[in-house]
Amino acid sequence: MYSKILILHFPPAVAQKAVVCYLTKKYDLLFNILGAKVSNSKDGYMVLEICGTRDNYKKGVRYLKNQGVRVSSAEQEIWRDTSKCTHCGACTAVCPTQALYVKRPEMEVIYDKDKCTVCELCIVTCPTRAMGLYSSKNTEDMLQ
Amino acid sequence: MGEFKVNKTYAEINEKIKSGKAVVVTAEEIIGIVKENGPVEAAAQVDVVTTGTFAPMCSSGAFLNIGQSTPSVRTTKTWFNDVPAYSGVAAVDSFLGATEVSINDPLNKIHPGEFNYGGAHVLQDLVSGKKVEVRAESYGTDCYPNRKIEKTMTLADMPQAIMCNPRNGYQNYNCAINRTDKTKYTYMGTLKPNMANANYCSAGQLSPLFNDPYLKTIGIGTRIFLGGTQGYVSWSGTQHKSDVQRGLNGVPLTPAGTLFVMGNLKEMSPEWLVAQSIRGYGVSLSMGLGIPIPILNEEMAKFTAVADEDLFTQVVDYGHDYPQAISKSYGQISYAELKSGTIMIQGQEIPTVPLSSMIKARKIAMLLKESIKNGSFLLGEPQHIF
After folding, report:
1. Which residues form the Homocysteine biosynthesis enzyme sulfur-incorporation domain (chain B) (predicted)?
2. What residues in A contact B199, CB-CB < 8 Å?
3. A125 to B191: CB separation less than 8 angstroms, yes or no
4. What is the DSSP letter of B32?
5. For B269-280, what is each residue's pLDDT tens digit?
6. Among B62, B296, B301, CA closest to B166
7. Fewer CB in a 10 Å sphere around the end CB: N or C, chain A?
8. Helices in A28-132 by DSSP H: which ranges?
9. Residue ranges per domain, chain A?
10. A142 pLDDT higher than 70
11. For A76-143, which CATH class?
12. Structure ipTM
């Protein structure tokens, strides 16, 4: 089973339509809504965890894009500066998906990017500002 | 003397350290040794047990002397990177407190505030070797006519920089929950409504004052690991309490002892002195603190052998009770339970959140162990016990 967290941006015209439900209906994908909101300008925003076969996942994402939904991958956007992290654990209080969790018995704070929904709560909660929001391009720069 | 089977003095242990023969273990390692061999045998074997803790310690700061200017100045107001330092002391001396925030900080005007820069950040910048903008004012006197100075300084440029922390190393601390229906932003971290998380802040079995519950070996002059260098206990800390409820092992069940510690800021490292921006609360400073406990007798071996399951604290509601100064415990829980990841309070399973870094605490205990073993760290015999 393949599982991935995606961020979907719906332009105002698309935000009014039923789109996401077809991931299940047409492509046999399961989805879990981790976050959703509609802005004042009627743009829609949704964080989805999608599960299914890899093949169906690809078809599903293609379908979303064809409907005019901007799809971006969540995992590339929150970055931990490991030189700043003191493994205090304060972030684990607010992380809604346990992407940030304490490994026991070592009591080391682990960041599992695959579970991150980019809610950004860790950024303002981390006392040493070790968590940051980066575009995928910047993340690549940082990795080099 | 006489009441113990094993009797060692500070001088004897220091001689062993100097000759490289001292047996040193960490507060985690001693647990198994005492369990296996008993306290008498352990006390005969082990000379020193090292402890460590790394957590926000708000009552921290430094006396900074910025050197004289021409013409001379008696600074009455001083700012470091726009963070005010208390200047009601002699010319060009000031005390920069860790929790002081930058003058332009919006504080909690938009709640919860971020508190991105304060005294702790200045201290961390200084020990990192960064340049700091120093600004000071004076009313001018015949002997000190200068009324305003501005300069850029590094820590190396300062004649003296003395870390002076009036309340560090708390012996035990509350576990915080929030029983209200709104998120609370506290010095114990973010507390979600309806007891959705329980935050605690102690290194437990590695924590210095848990390993010497009656402070029998810790007093004025005890040499310690502080911020990456050798510092000293200079007094008991503010809010120090010894008359508290204790478990059968003598360990306090509530916040109790504290230490007033000092050290040379110029020798410290940014690895062990880290500024904290605590959302909705303010700025604090996480200090690396480690205390070597001399195993003078089997009683000290027994004290240092405490494990997380023998150490307890109280669950306190920081949503309603604590702000209203209501002293009420929603349960007494062990650090073993806290470190397990969940606790049970009033039939509800609550995920626990540590605020004290065990990774760093363990490293401090290891570093201290190494420096005692290689003879570079000698025990300081306390000149006065609290």
Report:
1. 22-379
2. 90, 93
3. no
4. H
5. 999 999 999 999
6. B62
7. C
8. 54-66, 121-125
9. 2-73, 76-143
10. no
11. alpha beta
12. 0.94
